[in-house]
Amino acid sequence: MNVTLRIVPMGAVERGLLEAAALGATTAYEVETSIDPGLAEPKYAFNPSRSQHNASAIVRKLGQNHRPSASDLVLAIGNVDLFDPDVDFVFGDGDGLLRAAVMGLHRVRTSDEERLTRRVMGLSVWAVGLALGLRDCEDVRCAMAAPRMPEELERRNGVLCSPCRALLAKGGQL
């Protein structure tokens, strides 16, 4: 089965960062990628009291409205600060049933372009893994370990641990 990961910028996002996200996901999951036309910044998900965007609201809308085929995945990337109601912030979110994920660049930004590229690649592997039905992993060496700090993303090599690879194979979602 051919799976295409559709990468969609939300607002103005540098082309190089979209390409870095595509490279990370392609290397880890062997999916085809396309960079699709952009969407507006997700104002519907903005919470003014937090000055952040609700990650799960974005994922829901992506999964419902932006997948041309049932086998496709969609990853939205924006210069936004994301949150989940239970925590102060998240770098991203994803849903395996909706086959959709979102990444916020606000907290991973750095003036060092090389470090930023590594962060985006690591974050894309994790976010796409969520869209494929994987969960956060306890193994800090695994690409699916939940990122807590941007620097952790720089050290990732995009490789899944054995249990996550087995779970991915068992889920058959690729």
Characterise this structure:
This protein has five helices and nine strands. The protein has 174 residues and is an alpha/beta fold. It has one domain: Collagenase (Catalytic Domain) (3-Layer(aba) Sandwich), CATH 3.40.390. The strands form two sheets. It has a five-stranded mixed β-sheet with strand order 2-1-5-9-8, sandwiched between helices. The chain has a four-stranded mixed β-sheet with strand order 3-4-6-7. Helix 1 (15-29) crosses helix 3 (113-131). The longest helix has 19 residues, at 113-131. The radius of gyration is 15 Å and the shape is globular. The protein starts with a strand and ends with a helix.
Biggest β-sheet, characterized?
A: 5 strands, mixed
Count of alpha/pi helices: 5
Instruction: Order the strands across the largest sheet as they lie in space.
Output: 2-1-5-9-8
Shape: globular
Report the portion of residues in β strands.
15-25%
Order of helices and strands: EHEEEHEEEEEHHH
- CATH topology grouping: Collagenase (Catalytic Domain)
* Rounded radius of gyration (Å): 15 Å
CATH superfamily: Collagenase (Catalytic Domain)
Helix content: 25-40%
**CATH class category label:** Alpha Beta
How many beta-strand runs? 9
Low-confidence stretches: none
Number of spatially distinct domains: 1
